[in-house]
């Protein structure tokens, strides 16, 4: 048995701080895209989508910026360790910029986070959460093959547009790559695809490094490393 060195502790501290920063407030419901959308005076709709593998997803929608004119739909897809809040954090966030530009903005929440998490673990408003109601046996593959396809079909049916624009950030870009490569027929349903910091090479990804070091993170509780 060997004690962890200073570099080990530093890595673990940074890794755990990152996870806590992006998740703690969400779990305490103090970060919420819906609240921010209403706070900044934009109209809000929330929608539920069921996937073919029975995942329960939640979407926020900003149909217009108050002028009642609904434009072309655009889907915003967030990154890892976050939810749709990153597109609505302040009054100059991307969702509001696009809404002011005339787009019909749709905010996607991956399985288990944001509005998707709320819909999945609460039977009704005010009830106690039940995390066992969420299946955690999934990856970005299911998010691309099942989630994004279901969301695209839902939005196009709701808006009666033949195509939509997609903006993917980090993991959101990965999901888009999976969807459009494994389900090539959906390329015909996407007008413009904008990818920000796309995550595709996991051999050099910080996320991969994090999970390779996971035994160290567990062992910090015991203060020893095997």
TrEMBL record:
Domain annotation AB hydrolase-1: ranges: 72-203
Keyword Disulfide bond: no
Signal sequence segment: none
GO biological process, one term: lipid catabolic process
Pfam entry (one): Abhydrolase_1
Gene3D superfamilies per UniProt: alpha/beta hydrolase
Protein name: Lipase 3
Species in which this protein is naturally found: Schizaphis graminum (Green bug aphid)
Underlying gene: Lip3_4
């Amino acid at each position: 048995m060997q004690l962890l060195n200073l570099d080990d502790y530093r890595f673990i501290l940074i890794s755990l701080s990152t996870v806590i920063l992006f998740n703690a407030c969400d779990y305490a419901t103090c970060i919420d895209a819906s609240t921010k959308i209403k706070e900044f005076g934009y109209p809000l709709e929330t929608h539920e989508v069921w996937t073919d593998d029975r995942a329960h997803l939640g979407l926020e929608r900003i149909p217009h910026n108050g002028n009642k004119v609904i434009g072309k739909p655009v889907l915003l897809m967030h990154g890892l360790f976050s939810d749709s809040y990153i597109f609505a954090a302040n009054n100059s966030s991307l969702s509001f910029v696009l809404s002011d530009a005339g787009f019909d903005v749709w905010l996607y929440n991956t399985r288990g986070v944001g509005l998707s998490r709320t819909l999945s673990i609460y039977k009704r408003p005010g009830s106690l959460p039940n995390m066992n109601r969420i299946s955690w046996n999934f990856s970005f593959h299911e998010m691309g093959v099942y989630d994004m396809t279901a969301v695209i079909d839902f939005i196009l049916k709701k808006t009666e547009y033949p195509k939509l624009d997609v903006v993917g950030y980090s993991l959101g870009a990965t999901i888009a790559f999976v969807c459009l490569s494994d389900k090539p027929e959906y390329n015909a349903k996407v007008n413009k695809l904008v990818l920000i910091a796309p995550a595709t090479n996991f051999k050099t990804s910080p996320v991969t490094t994090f999970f390779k070091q996971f035994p160290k993170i567990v062992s910090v509780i015991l203060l020893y490393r095997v």
